[in-house]
Specification:
The structure holds 2 protein chains of 2 kinds.
Chain A (H helix, E strand, L loop, with lengths): L15 H21 L6 H24 L3 H5 L1 H18 L1 E3 L2 E6 L4 E2 L1 H20 L6 H20 L3 H18 L3 H26 L7 H11 L1 H24 L6 H24 L2 H11 L10 H13 L10 H4 L11 H34 L3 H26 L16 H19 L5
Antiparallel strand pairs in A: 1-2, 2-3
Helix pairs in contact in A: 1-15, 2-17, 4-5, 4-6, 5-6, 5-7, 5-16, 5-17, 6-7, 7-16, 8-11, 8-12, 9-10, 10-11, 13-15, 15-16, 15-17, 16-17
Chain B lengths: L1 H35 L1 H12 E6 L6 E2 L5 E13 L6 H15 L3 H14 L3 E7 L1 H13 L3 E10 L7 H4 L2 E3 L2 H6 L11 E3 L2 H5 L1 H5 L3 E7 L5 E8 L6 E4 L3 H13 L5 E6 L6 E7 L27 H4 L9 H11 L8 E3 L2 E3 L4 E3 L5 E3 L1 H6 L3 H11 L1 H10 L21 H6 L6 H8 L9 H12 L3 E3 L4 E5 L6 E3 L5 E4 L4 H17 L11 E9 L7 E9 L7 E7 L5 H20 L4 H14 L1
Parallel strand pairs in B: 2-10
Antiparallel strand pairs in B: 1-8, 2-3, 3-4, 3-5, 6-7, 8-9, 10-18, 11-12, 11-23, 13-16, 14-15, 17-20, 18-19, 21-22, 22-23
Helix pairs in contact in B: 3-4, 3-5, 10-20, 12-14, 12-15, 12-19, 14-17
Classes of the chains: A mainly alpha, B alpha+beta.
Chain lengths: ~450, ~600
């Protein structure tokens, strides 16, 4: 650990661009939430909760900033224990709301521990990778990290809270990438997720279009990947394919370690089983989301309704928007979840293209500043923390905007700072506070 | 450490580049949605939030030439509940007060109200209410907020079956028909459209623009506010060339006739304007626009749409003798003063052809006046069938008159050239049959009216028209629709027309058409009795008339199906029609009428 007590009094302790962008988004968000819930029966409770969450978030931000971030590196085991404790606690004492047990209900407000855990997980993973040091390029790093994080994800899935997983996993990938992990291993991890997703989506697609079963190829694929004994056959086919590829490469005098092919085949099979697990675990409303993503207009009153209404709201806003508090789509309730997941639709309708681009611009500004802070960081841990937090916000931005413009399935993920959600706001502000802390202890100007 | 540092920086840059690219793609798609497709989405958003309680605009009125309204609109009312949540006591109170006026069971009404109160949606309580219950409801409305009385209009035909075949009727569209319509015209699936006659022909002019109460609703259809109460725009008025009294006389005459089946067509021989077009049996188009609270007996969805005046084809019988006479006079082969002895039958060589009476020695004038068959057999065999066919063609027999009504029959031309084309033979018997208008010859009543008008105008075969003009109620602009159009000029010698006039007048003064003799008028007429092998004979009567010293101003053809006799069955109707026309027309000629209208236009 290098000694970081080298701050000279003349140095700026805040990254003001990052701070400004953050404050801008928070103000933007507060206005949009008030407008979005304007006509809802529980308006007052939403606005009140948000107004309570704002000072708490400010406190969290200052806490993140004022603590030297290296404390998380030193105390990572305690942090890890804290995460597990929180998650077990919520499973035991949490309240059951809207199909998942993920809330602590306290006298004045509720909190969602998985939101805090999201940031903590990144801090823990960064600390772990920092400790791997020079062995970071070995495959074992990825493997051990997986082992370390499985309990966390397992506990979150038991609530279940998919959105946390959906955001944290890509953030970890970005973290691994920036750590310098061999791209091949990352590709394998991505492949694992890709194969699992591919099977899930294609099964859903076949389920949606039974007429496709008339095609032999589709039927063979479906049968092979679905039924008990056939899966063994499928495994054999994958193994044989892996061997044949390796053999072909050898014939062409391209010598690659056979280990790669074994690994690749294993990943495909793991993906298949992962896909089957997901397919099996998927709840009807989640399957509907996948269906709506595959064919949004097939059932405008049903699953595709939400996304269609959100797009109508955005499109109706035009360039300048209809003005705050006057969007008909949101005010009259056509846009679902308009103060949380679909808040961007409200922004789009009431503030128009200018509003959505403004939010997008502020997000890109924040991302840029996080990268810049990572570049300036005084040690590797600061660098890794920034990379992880960058990955987290990047994912949020991508998924939330992507959902609205129809390139990502509806995942039920809020947009930090803009969406209503106290725990999310507090933990996001805390994360940026940690980034500010890295900035304050930077090495370079 | 240095190596890793470089690697780190490169990867950081890649991540930032990735974020920038993602941001760019998102921005482009946002521009696509919010700028390029803005209008589509805005429209969808507007459709989402608005619900309209439509108010059907009043259709344009239809006037006769003398300014009498024969199709207008009557107010109709619908009652809506937009009150949203209310105490159940209030609803009960409401039910008690309103149920008696709406002709519905209190239980039904209260169920409707309750569903409106729980769902918050706009609920239609009753529709098609008549003016009768309106006053009471309007007063009640003052006491109960949330109750809306929506005024609409309904087609109303004040004279019932008056000119029903010409006016047409209204009906609903099916979905396919609705889809075919231009969306710009604002038709709704529930809109009534003209199904025949003027109502159909001038649908676009008559329609007008519907108004409505535009409600703002939320995603569950709950009424949030009233955006706009848009007033309708009434449709344009249509002015017919029909003369009310003439039409009335024609219809009443047909109703009074022995069989009640027939047709009357009266034309203005100076321009082809239809003065009356009656077909019996007729129907009352009001049955298609009932009020629900008056509960009409749902008897007559079955109507008699068959327009005998343009669709019935029959042999013209003795009225055709005018053609034969014209052909003979043109040929110059006959001497009008030469008498031919009618013994009641005519020897055609192989067989005898009968006359309907025994007339003794008759000259041309007597032959026409008494419609002596033997006289016409004789002159027909003298001139042959070809000239008769030629004159038929001059008056466009066998072709439709071209009146702008759907389904007009063309009738059938009869003559040797047609036979030749069909490669069959023409016998002397055919010539004799042709000369008295029997055989394969077929005409419609309107064809015969056109023929009468053509004789009256000395050869102008006009296309009959029945709509004069369309006057917009919004701009006051007049659009002239009816145009006098000569289809063909029947070029006979002037002397031929003179002699035909003389003969037809003689028929009225001394012959079979004595029934239409009217004091102070020059009436020209010819009767006809069409032999019907399947039943009673049909009666024909054609006439035209003029005030002394003027040219003829009305030509009429009357047909009574199974009337047995032209003069007895059809004659009185023709008399009524002529009388109705001239009774008032003494006061104002058609020229005066135009002057009157021009004056009115100047004031407007």
């Amino acid at each position: 650990m290098p000694d970081m007590k080298q701050m000279s009094p003349g140095r700026r302790r805040f990254d003001f661009i990052l701070l400004g962008a953050m404050i801008g988004l928070v103000i933007f968000g507060a206005l949009c939430i008030m407008s979005a819930v304007n006509s809802i029966s529980f308006t007052n409770s939403v606005v009140r909760t948000h107004l309570i969450a704002l000072p708490i978030g400010a406190l969290a931000f200052f806490a993140g900033w004022s603590f030297n971030y290296q404390i998380y590196d030193e105390q990572w085991k305690a942090l890890y224990g804290f995460i597990l404790l929180l998650l077990i606690g919520v499973l035991l004492f949490g309240s059951y709301q809207r199909g998942s047990r993920s809330w602590f209900v306290l006298p004045f407000f509720s909190m969602q521990p998985s939101e805090i855990c999201r940031v903590c997980t990144i801090l823990v993973a960064a600390a772990f990778l920092d400790r791997r040091g020079r062995r970071i390029r070995e495959v074992s790093s990825v493997f051990y990290l997986g082992i370390l994080l499985i309990p966390i994800f397992g506990l979150i899935m038991m609530q279940p809270d998919f959105s946390s997983v959906v955001v944290t996993l890509p953030a970890l990938l970005v973290l691994l990438y920036c750590t310098g992990v061999n791209v091949f291993y990352l590709t394998l991890v991505a492949l694992l997720a890709g194969v699992a997703g591919f099977f899930t989506i294609s099964w859903t697609y076949i389920y949606l279009h039974p007429e496709l079963m008339d095609y032999t190829v589709v039927r063979i694929f479906h049968e092979l990947s679905h039924n008990g004994w056939y899966i063994a056959g499928f495994s054999v086919i994958v193994a044989v394919l892996g061997y044949v590829t390796w053999w072909l490469f050898k014939q062409f005098r391209v010598y690659l370690p056979s280990f790669y092919f074994v690994l690749a085949s294993l990943v495909v099979l793991a993906g298949l089983f992962g896909g089957m697990f997901v397919d099996h675990q998927m709840k009807p409303h989640q399957r509907k989301r996948v269906e709506a993503f595959l064919a949004p207009r097939s059932d405008p009153r049903g699953a595709g309704y939400n996304i269609l209404q959100a797009q109508i709201a955005m499109g109706a806003g035009g360039i300048a928007g209809k003005g705050l508090f006057s969007g008909t789509q949101s005010r009259l309730g056509f846009v679902p979840e308009r103060h949380t997941d679909f808040i961007l639709a409200v922004v789009g309708e009431e503030l128009g293209l200018l509003g959505t681009l403004c939010v997008l611009g502020l997000y890109l500004l924040i991302l840029w500043r996080i990268i810049a802070v990572a570049y300036m960081s005084g040690d590797r841990y600061g660098y890794l923390v920034c990379a992880g937090i960058f990955g987290m916000f990047f994912t949020y931005m991508l998924v939330n905007y992507g959902m609205l413009i129809g390139i990502v399935p509806v995942a039920g993920i809020p947009l930090p700072f803009i969406s209503y959600g106290g725990s999310n706001l507090v933990s996001s502000l805390w994360a940026l506070g940690v980034v500010q802390s890295v900035y304050a202890h930077r090495l370079r100007a | 450490m240095a190596v890793t540092k470089i690697l780190f920086n490169a990867r950081l840059k890649i991540m930032m580049a990735l974020a920038a690219v993602a941001g760019g793609i998102i921005a482009l798609r946002l521009i696509d949605i919010q700028v390029l497709r803005h209008n589509d989405y805005l429209q969808m958003a507007e459709r989402n939030r608005t619900q309209v309680i439509y108010q059907t605009a009043p259709r344009g009125r239809v006037f006769t030439a003398d300014g009498i309204t024969v199709a207008s609109n009557a107010p109709s009312f619908s009652l809506y509940y937009l009150g949203g949540q209310q105490e159940s006591d209030y609803l009960e109170h409401l039910t008690r007060d309103f149920a008696p006026h709406l002709q519905v069971e209190p239980a039904v009404l209260s169920a409707k109200l309750r569903s409106g109160a729980t769902s918050g949606k706009a609920v239609l309580l009753a529709e098609n209410l008549s003016t009768k219950s309106m006053v009471a409801l309007q007063e009640l409305q003052l006491y109960y907020p949330g109750i809306y009385l929506i005024e609409e209009t309904k087609r109303n035909y004040p004279y019932g079956d008056f000119a029903s075949h010409l006016l047409g009727y209204l009906g609903s569209m099916d979905e396919r028909e609705w889809r075919k319509r231009d969306p710009k015209l604002g038709y709704r699936l529930s809109s009534k459209i003209g199904k025949s006659g003027v109502e159909k022909k001038f649908e676009n002019d008559l329609k007008g623009k519907d108004g409505g109460v535009y409600l703002e609703v939320d995603y569950r259809g709950r009424v949030k506010s009233i955006i706009e109460d848009k007033k309708w725009a009434a449709g344009s008025d249509v002015y017919l060339t029909i003369d009310f009294d003439v039409q009335k006389a024609a219809e009443e005459g047909l109703k009074k006739s022995s069989t009640g089946r027939g047709a009357v067509v009266a034309l203005d021989p100076r321009n082809g304007a239809v003065l009356a077009l009656a077909s019996a049996p007729a129907y009352d188009p009001n049955i298609f626009v009932p009020y629900s609270d008056l509960m009409p007996e749902n008897s007559a969805k079955k109507i008699n749409e068959y327009n005998l005046a343009i669709q019935g084809i029959y042999p013209p019988a003795s009225t055709f003798k005018i053609i034969t006479a014209a052909a003979a006079l043109e040929s110059g082969k006959i001497d009008t003063e030469r008498k031919i002895n009618c013994t009641g039958r005519y020897n055609a060589g192989s067989r005898y052809f009968k006359c309907w009476g025994k007339h003794g020695p008759v000259d041309f004038w007597e032959g026409m006046a008494h419609s002596c068959d033997v006289y016409f057999y004789t002159i027909a065999s003298l001139i042959g069938a070809a000239p008769i066919e030629r004159v038929q063609r001059l008056f466009m027999f066998g072709r439709p008159t071209g009146i702008d009504l759907p389904g007009e029959k063309s009738g059938n031309l009869y003559g040797p050239t047609r036979r030749a084309r069909n490669k069959t033979y023409w016998f002397i018997g055919d010539t004799l049959n042709l000369s008295i208008g029997q055989g394969e010859l077929l005409v419609t009543p309107i064809k015969l009216a056109q023929f009468a008008a053509a004789i009256a105008s000395r050869g102008n075969v006009y296309r009959p028209y029945y709509v004069d003009k369309v006057v917009s109620n919004q701009t006051g602009k007049t659009q002239q629709v009816g145009q006098s159009e000569v289809l063909q000029y029947a070029a006979l010698k002037p002397e031929t027309y003179d002699m035909l006039f003389k003969a037809l007048k003689h028929t009225v003064d001394n012959g079979t058409a004595r029934r239409v003799k009217i004091k102070g008028l020059d009436v020209y007429a010819k009767t006809g009795t069409a032999q019907n092998p399947h039943g009673a004979d049909h009666g024909w009567f054609m006439a035209f008339a003029a005030r002394p010293g003027e040219e003829p101003s009305i030509a009429v053809a009357v047909f009574v199906e199974f009337g047995e006799s032209g003069s007895a069955a059809a004659g009185p109707i023709a008399h009524e029609v002529l009388e109705a026309y001239f009774k008032q027309k003494n006061a104002r000629t058609s020229l005066d009428h135009e002057a009157l209208l021009a004056e009115g236009g100047a004031h407007a």
